Amino acid sequence: MGDKASCERPIFVIQKHRAGRLHYDFRLEVDGVLVSWAVPKGPSTDPRQRRLAVRVEDHPIGYAGFEGVIPEGEYGAGAVIVWDAGYYRNLLAEGGPRGEAPATMAEGLEAGSLRVHLDGQKVRGGYKLVRARLGGDPKNWLLIKMKDDAADARRRPTSTRPESVLSGRTLEEVAEEG
Ligand code: MN
Fold first, then answer.
1. To the nearest whole number, what is the mean pLDDT of the chain?
2. pLDDT tens, 84-138?
3. Exposed, middle or buried: residue 146 (CB in 10 Å: 0-12, 13-18, 19+)?
4. Pick from 89, 93, 149, 86: which is nearest to 121 by CA?
């Protein structure tokens, strides 16, 4: 603690959310807001798995710590837990693997191609987020694990680690406690 550089690292958070249909909200701090995607199946640690990630509205940074129940009648009504959280690095800022120029997160968002290194408790290492261009909705992106030391075709953290990293509670426990 007290390291100025570490205090300036951007955060990421993954909130497990049952609003109608279960999904994981994947959020990256970019220029003072949480840029967000809803990932129905959650992140995979297997580079062969492409997970649909639907871009949703930006959220305020303070929302990263939210866990609880959004009341009926409000947007996103249902239970939320902080499933994973930590800091991330923009790998695009280091330049691309084929000599591409360094890019900011804002530039990567505009281009529809991000590379981030996550330092979470459950999810770690490089992830690609790329806009899906199959003639579909431009809100549709894909979240894909990059091949690195944290890649693992057999880990299933969404199954084996369902609990909140803030409170240890499951989504069902938070829903019951209201
Ligand atoms: Mn949500």
1. 92
2. 999 999 999 988 778 888 999 999 999 999 999 999 999 999 999 999 977 778 8
3. middle
4. 86
Q: Kindly give the distance from the C-alpha atom of residue 145 to the centroid of ligand 1, in angstroms, as a whole number.
A: 21
Around ion ligand 1, residues with a beta carbon closer than 5 Å are 17, 25
Render pLDDT for 30-42 as a digit per residue (tens, 0 to 9).
999 999 999 999 9
Tell me how far apart the alpha carbons of residues 141 and 161 are, in angstroms, rounded to a whole number.
25
The CA 42 to ligand 1 mean position distance, Å, reads 12
Phi and psi torsions of 71, nearest 5°: -65, 155
Q: pTM for the whole thing? A: 0.92
> Does residue 66 have a pLDDT over 90?
yes
Centre of ligand 1 to C-alpha 4, Å, is: 32
Report the separation in Å between the CA atom of 116 and the middle of ligand 1, taken as the mean of its atom positions. Answer: 21
Secondary structure of the chain: what % helix, strand, coil (to 5)? 15, 40, 40
**Is the model's pLDDT at 5 over the cut of 70?**
no
Do the beta carbons of residue 168 and residue 83 sit within 8 Å?
no
CA of 81 to the centre of ligand 1 (A): 10
CA of 68 to the centre of ligand 1 (A): 12
CA of 46 to the centre of ligand 1 (A): 23
